[in-house]
Amino acid sequence: MKALVKEKAEPGLWLADVPEPVLGPGEVLIRVLRTGICGTDLHIRNFDAWARQTLRVPLVIGHEFCGEVVEVAPGVEDITPGDLVSGEGHLVCGKCRNCMAGRRHLCRDTVGLGVNRDGAFAEYLTLPASNVWVHRVPVELDVAAIFDPFGNAVHTALTFPMVGEDVLITGAGPIGLMAAAMATHVGARNVVVTDVSPERLELARKLGVALALNVAETPVSEGMRLLGMREGFDVGLEMSGNPRALREMIANMAHGGKIAMLGLPAEEFAVDFATIVTSMITVKGIYGREMYETWYAMSVLLEKGLDLSPVITDRFSYRDFDAAFDTAASGKTGKIILDWTA
Ligand SMILES: NC(=O)c1ccc[n+]([C@@H]2O[C@H](COP(=O)([O-])OP(=O)(O)OC[C@H]3O[C@@H](n4cnc5c(N)ncnc54)[C@H](O)[C@@H]3O)[C@@H](O)[C@H]2O)c1
Ligand SMILES: [Zn+2]
Ligand SMILES: [Zn+2]
C-alpha cells in the first residue's frame, strides 16, 4: 500500500510502498479516507531537534484521520465493517494509576500514533478497538478527519465555563480557530482572537468573533477598550505556544480569571507570577483529549450545529503531499486535508 514515510533521518518525507498492516488481537483494520496535517507532521518533515530526538525511522507518519472499517479482530464488539471512524492517537498504557482510575488522558506512558508507532498517512492502518471512535452521528469526511485537533480545541474550551464570559483566545491556527467557533457556539459574550497573521485573523472573523486582533499592531488592552470591557477576560485559551501571548494574556485577565493552556512553547520562558498570584489566576495545562468525554462532546456539538467548515481551507490528493505540506507550513491557512481516495 501507499504511505507517507519518514524513511531517512534527514529532512523530507517519502511516498513509499509499504506492507499492509496485519490485524492483531483486539484491533480494527481501517481503510483511510481523509487525513489532516498537524504541526507535529511539519516538525517531522523538517526533522527539527524534537523530531531528531523522538523518531525512529522508518516510520509511517500522521495521526489525524478518518476511515472506513474493513475488518475487526475476533471478540471486538460494537465496531462493524463499513463503520465510519476516527481514531484517538494517544495509545495509553492501561496499567498506570491514572489509567486504572479511568483517567486515561492523564496516562504517564502514552504512545503517539505516527510518532512512536506507524501512523495514519497510509491507505490502511490498524488501531486497538479501544482507540476507535465510531461516528454514529453523520459527519462530513473532512471534519471527521480532524477530530484529533478538534478534540484539542474542545478539551481546552470546555475546561472552564464560558457561558456569558469574556474569552481571549491567543493564536488563530487551526486549533485556535476551532476553539473560537466553540466559544461563540456555547454562548460566550465577547470572544477575542489574537494572532500576528492577517490571513488567519480574517478566518477568525468569518467565525463571527467579537474581535480578531493583530497583536503585532494593537495590544490586547486596546481591544478590550474597543469592546467596552473594563475588568479583563474571564477565560483565556492559550493556543499559540508563544511566550508573548501568554504574558499579554496574564496581564489582561480579570481577577479570578482562568487560563487553559494548550499551546506548546518550544522552550522555557518567564512570566509575571506576581500578577498570577495577586489576580488569583488559575492556569491549567491541557494535553490531548479526554477519553472519551471529549469525543462525545465533539460529536454532539456538531450534531447541534457547530460549523467547522470555515476552518478547513485547502484539500489535496495524498499524491500532492509536498504541496499540501508547503501550504500548511505557510502559516496563513486553516486546516489542510489530504484525500487518500483520489
Ligand atoms: N497540548 C496539546 O495536546 C497540543 C496538541 C496539538 C497542538 N498543540 C499546540 O497548540 C498550539 C496550536 O496548535 P495549531 O496547530 O493551531 O498551531 P499553529 O502553529 O498553526 O498556530 C499558532 C498560531 O499562533 C500565532 N501566534 C504567534 N505569536 C503569537 C502571539 N504573540 N499572539 C497570538 N498569536 C500568535 C501564529 O501566527 C499561529 O497562527 C501549538 O502551540 C501546538 O504546538 C498542543
Ligand atoms: Zn495533531
Ligand atoms: Zn497509563
Automatic annotation (TrEMBL):
Annotated residues for binding of Zn(2+) 1: 38, 63-64
Domain of life: Bacteria
Important for catalytic activity for the proton relay mechanism but does not participate directly in the coordination of zinc atom (site feature) positions: 148
EC number assigned by the record: 1.1.1.103
InterPro entries: ADH-like_C (IPR013149), ADH-like_N (IPR013154), ADH_Zn_CS (IPR002328), ER (IPR020843), GroES-like_sf (IPR011032), L-Threonine_3-DHase (IPR004627), NAD(P)-bd_dom_sf (IPR036291), Zn_alcohol_dh (IPR050129)
SMART domains xref list: PKS_ER
Residues at which Zn(2+) 2 binds: 93, 96, 99, 107
Protein name: L-threonine 3-dehydrogenase
Residue sites binding NAD(+) per the record: 175, 195, 200, 262-264, 286-287
